[in-house]
UniProtKB/TrEMBL annotation, chain A:
Molecular function (Gene Ontology), one example: phospholipid transporter activity
Listed GO CC annotations: ATP-binding cassette (ABC) transporter complex
Keywords per UniProt: Membrane, Transmembrane, Transmembrane helix
Membrane-traversing stretches: 54-73, 93-112, 151-175, 205-224, 236-259
Keyword Transmembrane helix belongs to the record: yes
Organism: Algoriphagus lacus
Cited PANTHER family: ABC TRANSPORTER PERMEASE PROTEIN-RELATED
Name the UniProt record assigns to this protein: ABC transporter permease
Family annotation (InterPro entries): Permease_MalE (IPR030802)
TrEMBL record, chain B:
GO molecular-function term, one example from the UniProt record: ATP hydrolysis activity
Coiled-coil residues: none
Keywords tagged on the record: ATP-binding, Nucleotide-binding, Transport
Provenance organism: Algoriphagus lacus
Protein name: ATP-binding cassette domain-containing protein
Length: 265, 252
């Protein structure tokens, strides 16, 4: 038994060492982003190209998911509210749930899967096939061209996608409410906008910016540090999704605490 | 004492990765308009040597001077200025997957040469594609090209900034013998036409013999022989250099 304890120590120490080295490495990657983002040359064309890829190409998936979420959430909430004779509160309930939590979360999780993995795999593959080195030796800063542009694009586009998801989810919800409660569109949306506060909207936008930044930086970090050939690329893409999703939930929790504290003031 | 102008001067260069000592105090010179071939087994540190030359890796000890400048001592701006004088042709070509051949060639040009008109950029690209014999591939994606074509486009991309030194990392690796011969001819043509000095990293003795003015055999972290092909190989006394020659000879 004593022998086992002695054997375990170095392993634990190695794991801790690896964890803290990784943390320091990730921190210096984030720091480098903030150092490089304000320095010329600015890759505007590439930022716009990435915004198109991340934003426009995600629209079909986001539309479908947002719409279904709106319908499903409305249909799931109706029986409980009806029990208390409060079915007329459906638009209020849905709008608060969608704007405060579901819109940003659903969009961020889908983007983490679609965009985060694609960034991780793309940059990872560029790393293992020496394309990043090729950029570097041609006196181009690959960090600026690949990382800064993608992180800016996700940071800009995720809030826009969240607003779009909110709208699509509310439209889905409206369809369900209209069919079952015979509520008109104007009545539905008047109730929606009466229920949403300025804090709801600003916190949702703030959260979305944070989620967007997280998806971009995690995807780039995992891709930029990938190794071991094609297996490494797969791992980078996978790790980008898992890590981004994990961080999104942590951020959601933290922002919720802050917003609740502000609301309680 | 060789009176030719040295463009690269390497002295006592050391590089280790963990416990593995890849370069153990190597000395080497590259002269203007010379084709120098660095031969060695896989993993012997040949690529490490040229990666240190362009600042992709940093040596642990020793000196690497390119055009008289100590590479490790250069700041970012100076290093980039030096990199513009060096063309690096990667082992797997390293063409940008998401860009067409035209965009691949344009990429370093538009970022490093200011105030070029569209016409000037196009002319330069067409001239280089003609030079490597692939004018028809201008709008193709790298995935549509064969291994040999990729190598040629990779060379064209490095030539677009008019480098004075060309570094070829395993230019014939993974190619059939006929395409190998074409690539070897291209290396010689590049030297003729652009007056470049070159370092060719390879373990292919046929490529070395065809392209190199001098050979340097890197084994166990040190250059075991440096000289012309005739000086190094047929008369080799070092058993490992001899076996390297024999192995290649038998296989060819």
């Amino acid at each position: 038994m004593a022998g086992e304890a002695i054997d375990r120590k170095p392993l634990l120490s190695k794991k801790l060492d690896k964890f803290f080295t990784g943390l320091a490495d990730a921190w210096s990657f984030v720091k480098r982003f903030f150092q490089e983002v304000f320095l010329p040359p600015y890759e505007f064309k590439e930022v716009i190209h990435q915004c198109y890829r991340i934003g426009v190409e995600s629209l079909p998936l986001i539309s479908l998911t947002g719409f279904i979420v709106g319908i499903v959430f409305t249909n799931q909430s109706r029986p409980s509210l009806s029990e208390f004779g409060a079915a007329s509160w459906l638009p209020s309930l849905i709008s608060i749930a969608v704007v405060r939590a579901m819109g940003p979360l659903v969009t961020a999780l889908i983007a983490a899967g679609k965009v985060g993995s694609s960034i991780g795999a793309e940059i990872g593959s560029m790393k293992v096939t020496e394309q990043i080195d090729a950029m570097e030796v041609s006196a181009t800063n690959p960090f600026k061209f690949l990382v800064v542009t993608r992180v800016l694009a996700t940071t800009f586009m995720i809030p826009l996608l969240v607003m779009y998801t909110d709208f699509v989810a509310l439209m889905g919800s409206f369809l369900s409410v209209n069919k079952n409660e015979l509520v008109s569109m104007s009545t539905f949306f008047v109730q929606v906008f009466e229920s949403i506060t300025f804090l709801d909207v600003t916190s949702s936008i703030f959260k979305s910016i944070l989620f967007g930044f997280t998806i971009g930086i995690v995807g780039c970090y995992k891709g930029y540090n990938s190794s071991k050939g094609t297996e490494g690329v797969g791992r980078a893409a996978n790790a980008a999704v898992v890590m981004a999703m994990f961080l999104i939930f942590i951020e959601e929790l933290l922002v919720l605490q802050i917003v609740n504290a502000i609301r309680g003031m | 004492m060789d009176q030719r102008e040295r463009v690269v001067e390497i002295r006592g260069l050391e590089k280790s990765f963990g416990d593995l000592d890849v370069l153990q105090g190597v000395d080497l010179d590259l002269y203007r308009e010379e084709n120098l071939v660095v031969l060695g087994k896989s993993g012997s540190g040949k690529s490490v040597l040229i990666k240190i030359m362009v600042g992709l890796l940093r040596q642990d000890a020793g000196s690497m001077k390119v055009f008289g400048q100590e590479v490790a001592a250069l700041n970012k701006k100076e290093l980039n200025a030096l990199r513009l004088k060096i063309g690096f042709s990667f082992q797997n070509s390293a063409l940008y997957d998401s860009m067409t051949v035209r965009e691949n060639l344009e990429f370093p040009l538009v970022r490093n040469v200011k105030n070029l008109t569209r016409g000037e950029i196009d002319r330069r690209i067409e001239e280089l594609l003609d030079g490597v014999g692939l004018p028809q591939s201008i709008n193709q994606m790298p995935s549509e090209l064969s291994g040999g074509q990729k190598k040629r486009i990779g060379v064209a991309r490095t030539l677009i900034l008019n480098p004075e030194i060309m570094l070829y990392d395993e230019p014939t690796a993974g190619l059939d013998p006929i395409t190998c011969g074409d690539i070897n001819n291209l290396i010689l043509e590049v030297r003729e036409r652009y007056k470049t000095s070159s370092i060719v990293i390879t373990h292919d003795l046929a490529c070395a013999k065809q392209t190199g003015d001098r050979m340097a055999v890197l084994l166990d972290g040190q250059f075991k022989a440096i000289g012309t092909f005739e000086e190094v190989f047929p008369k080799a006394t070092d058993e490992r250099v001899k076996s390297f020659y024999d192995y290649n000879f038998i296989n060819s």
